[in-house]
Design goal:
The chain has 28 helices and 20 strands. With 790 residues, the protein is α+β, with helices and mostly antiparallel strands. The strands form 6 sheets. A 6-stranded mixed sheet has the order 16-17-15-18-19-20. A 4-stranded antiparallel sheet has the order 4-5-3-6, sandwiched between helices. Strands 10-9-11-12 form a 4-stranded mixed sheet. Strand 4 (284-288) and strand 5 (291-297) form a beta hairpin. The chain binds zinc ion.
Length: 790
């Protein structure tokens, strides 16, 4: 059996087992056999592949053996696949019953002992599609329709013509089928198990060929203590400055292109590493949000240093030190798969320390000028790019055509120009093609020149092109177009009549019926305690399949679901996603919509993660004039996010520090408080706009803050005095004079806050911050700007 076959068999082995266990209802086994015989892609492999796919590991061998094979010695490939199967999941149980269990959400399992989730949540047994990714409570779950899934899988499988399609078909159909039939451990999908199993299998095969492991050692894999694997981690730094250090006039035309370029740059570096180490798609355990993990055989260790230096040299030449990819790895033995989360954390720490020794691998001394820039900068005025500052002896400079105002003789370099073109290509992209090239010029005039130095180039298009290797964007029906696979991501941009909307127009879109501030909202959010969730959250079962399941499911929300929430709420012309991936999101948009977005996105994230109290995100939200420098608003928003994540040291009794807040207009609130701010704002808005109150009412409500303060404080301590609420109505007397009903509504709102607190909420849901009233008033003021009274 050759290397390719080991890989395919590793991927398909558990699917074979599944079909075999379901073969009573339909003749799946013969259908798959006929596909393997007649499909051109599979034909190039010999018959032993079939045997490997249907061979089950030793615990159940007897059951199936008599059906397919003669009894006999296990082949080498069987030994490799069995060992890989064993290492991929720590639960060694196999398919025993034929009832189809459903996949439990892995988010219910994070810090399971402490998270207090008493409901069971499962995924619908349906193909991967953004409509199906939310977990459902057990009593609302439709029964599993595994037969339907398998029939559709086999129908598509018969048309495949390249290896990558197989990988993506497995993801599409088996992302929500549990790998194990044990009730206690059904949170690993068959896809994640098969993927990691194939990655381990091909690594073991390479180790065997390099004479680092013997057949008998393979048979006793759990006791083999010599290093056999490498876990490689890469992390891109310089992202924020690279994207945002651009003049504001250019912002909407460049930001997206720049952030998407970084995304694709990492995709292509990952492809380059996989190609150089002769690995497979499955070896990429994770890639998103500026960082990646790759599993490789230990025998490739020697190749890594050269690879790292090569990557750094190319990046240095292309970006003069603005972008740095820190890469490091650890070697580990088979038995360490039992505690894979620890390896995940360990290599991450190593990579962090590489960042403190940036550019060491290329020789800091020799490249000092390249990294820190030549000393002659700022001599002649017109020989530098006005966006990135590169001089004309590094890249071609041209007059910047897009500026036709006062600074008409400003120059732009060809690379910055190409990011503007990329932004334009993205606005209605449905396909991404990534193809190989030998065009390695070492001159980096455009982004594709940089990527070509890694052996690839790419292009986006709205319709299908003639390229070989195309991915369908945000749509898993890729086989109908003969694509290689699919990709989720926030690719599209707000547009109007096929023209991209500018930031000024986004700011204008905040104005409703002539009312409201013409401003931009800037939002940055990311998952709290992500490192701890991965390294400690999985508790007892710390297998590789579980870690990859968790990271894939987390990415699906930020890369996939974000598109759905924007479209469903008709925010397509109001929200500009600068980036969203891994565990974080950065968006710019109409300020009032951004607030609604933050609230809804949070609500859906909580639902997606089964209301696990340890899986939350925090956010920073700023509101700025549309022409305020984008790099400054980005930094300020980053500061707001830091502010939101400030830990309350009075609460250090939990497994992770609880953050889970949003900083809005410089004040930090919890998400329940944000909800209340919004409902008070809605009430006030209605009073001002529809009920004919002057804006004077806002001042009057603001004054009620003081009276409410004591009542609110009392309520958080379980104290409620009717008399005080009566006094509050005194503070609202000016409102009352005009309209009894309005005052009543406000009082009701305050009262419901008090009752909310009195019904014993957890600290995260307690409404503590009296600034909710000034914030609601401020929000209403901004939303009613320019409203003509009378
Ligand atoms: Zn430039």
């Amino acid at each position: 059996m050759n290397r390719e076959e080991i890989y395919i068999a590793g991927l398909m082995n558990d699917i074979g087992k599944l079909l075999n266990s379901k073969n009573d209802n339909y003749d799946y086994v013969n259908k798959l056999k006929s596909i393997l015989k007649n499909n051109q892609f599979f034909q190039k492999f010999n018959n032993s592949l079939l045997k490997e796919i249907f061979t089950v590991n030793s615990s159940q061998q007897n059951m199936v053996e008599s059906v397919f094979f003669d009894k006999g010695e296990k082949s080498l490939s069987q030994k490799i696949i069995d060992a890989a199967d064993f290492l991929s999941t720590s639960n060694k149980e196999d398919l025993k019953d034929k009832d189809s269990l459903q996949l439990r959400s892995i988010f219910t399992e994070i810090f399971k002992k402490e998270n207090n989730i008493d409901e069971d949540y499962f995924y619908p047994t349906k193909k991967l599609d953004l409509n199906n990714i939310f977990p459902v409570k057990k009593d609302k779950l439709e029964s599993a329709d595994l037969d339907n899934l398998i029939i559709n899988f086999l129908n598509e499988l018969k048309n495949i013509n390249r290896e990558e399609q197989l990988y993506f078909l497995l993801e599409k159909y088996f992302w929500s089928v549990p790998a194990s039939k044990s009730q206690s451990n059904s949170d690993i999908s068959l896809f994640d198990h098969s993927k990691t199993k194939a990655a381990i299998a091909i690594s073991l095969y390479d180790q065997y060929k390099a004479e680092k492991i013997t057949e008998s050692e393979l048979e006793d894999i759990s006791n083999f203590k010599k290093d056999q694997f490498i876990l490689l981690n890469g992390d891109l730094s310089g992202i924020q400055d690279f994207i945002f250090n651009i003049p504001s006039k250019k912002a909407s035309k460049s930001l997206k292109g720049r952030s998407m370029y970084l995304n694709l740059l990492l995709d292509i570096i990952v492809k380059y590493i996989v190609e150089e180490l002769d690995l497979k798609e499955s070896n990429i355990l994770y890639n998103g949000g500026g960082n990646f993990y790759i599993l490789a055989p230990e025998s490739k260790k020697e190749d890594l240093n050269g690879l790292k230096t090569g990557i750094s040299k190319k990046l240095l030449a292309a970006h003069q030190g603005d972008l740095y990819l820190a890469v490091d790895s650890i070697c580990f033995a088979p038995h360490e798969f039992d505690n894979f989360t620890e390896l995940w954390g360990k290599v991450k720490i190593k990579v962090e320390s590489v960042k403190h020794r940036k550019w060491n691998e290329v020789g800091l001394k020799d490249n000092f000028n390249k990294i820190f820039g030549p000393l002659d900068q700022g001599t002649a005025e017109n020989d530098h790019c006005h966006i990135c500052g590169v001089s004309n002896d590094i890249r071609k400079l041209d007059l910047d055509k897009s500026i036709n105002e006062n600074n008409e003789n400003q120059k732009i370099c060809s690379l910055c120009e190409s990011f503007i073109d990329l932004t334009d290509d993205l606005k209605d992209a449905n396909y991404l093609s990534i193809n190989k090239t030998n065009n390695n010029s070492n001159i980096y005039q455009s982004y594709n020149d940089v990527l070509s130095s890694f052996g690839y180039y790419f292009s986006f298009s709205s319709t299908l092109t003639e390229f070989d290797n195309i991915y369908k964007l945000n749509d898993t029906n890729f086989m109908t177009d003969n694509c290689s696979g699919f990709k989720f991501g926030a690719y599209n941009l707000p547009q109007e009549d096929h023209r991209q909307i500018t930031f000024e127009e986004l700011a204008e879109n905040s104005i409703e019926n002539g009312n409201g501030d013409k401003k931009l909202g800037v939002l940055k959010l990311d998952v709290d305690n992500l490192g701890a969730i991965f390294t400690k959250g999985l508790e007892s079962d710390r297998s590789i399949a579980r870690v990859t399941s968790l990271s894939r499911m987390m990415g699906l929300f930020y890369e996939g679901y974000i598109n759905r929430i924007i479209t469903e709420n008709n925010w397509d012309d109001k929200i500009y996603v600068v980036f969203s991936g891994g565990d974080d999101t950065f968006i710019v948009g109409s300020w009032n919509v951004i607030l609604d977005f933050a609230e809804k996105f949070y609500k859906k994230f909580r639902e997606y993660t089964c209301y696990n109290k340890y899986i939350t995100f925090s956010a920073g939200l700023g509101v700025f004039k549309h022409n305020y420098p984008i790099n400054r608003s980005a930094h300020l928003t980053e500061d707001y996010l830091d502010e939101a994540k400030t830990i309350d040291f009075n609460r250090n009794d939990d497994v992770v520090p609880i953050k889970n807040k949003i900083n809005f207009l410089g004040e930090t609130f919890n998400w329940e408080e944000l909800k209340r701010i919004k409902s008070i704002k809605d009430l006030l808005y209605d009073l001002v706009i529809n009920k004919g109150y002057g804006k004077g009412i806002l001042r009057k409500v603001h004054k009620s803050t003081l009276g409410f303060k004591n009542i609110l404080e009392d309520s958080t301590r379980g104290i409620y005095r009717n008399i005080k609420l009566w006094r509050l109505s005194y503070y609202l007397r000016e409102v009352k004079e005009n309209d009894e009903e309005a005052a009543e509504k406000l009082l009701n709102e305050y009262e419901s806050i008090v009752i909310h607190n009195l019904t014993g909420k957890s600290e995260d849901e307690m409404i503590n911050n009296i600034m909710i009233i000034p914030a609601a008033v401020k929000w209403t003021e901004m939303a009613t700007r320019n409203f003509k009274e009378g």
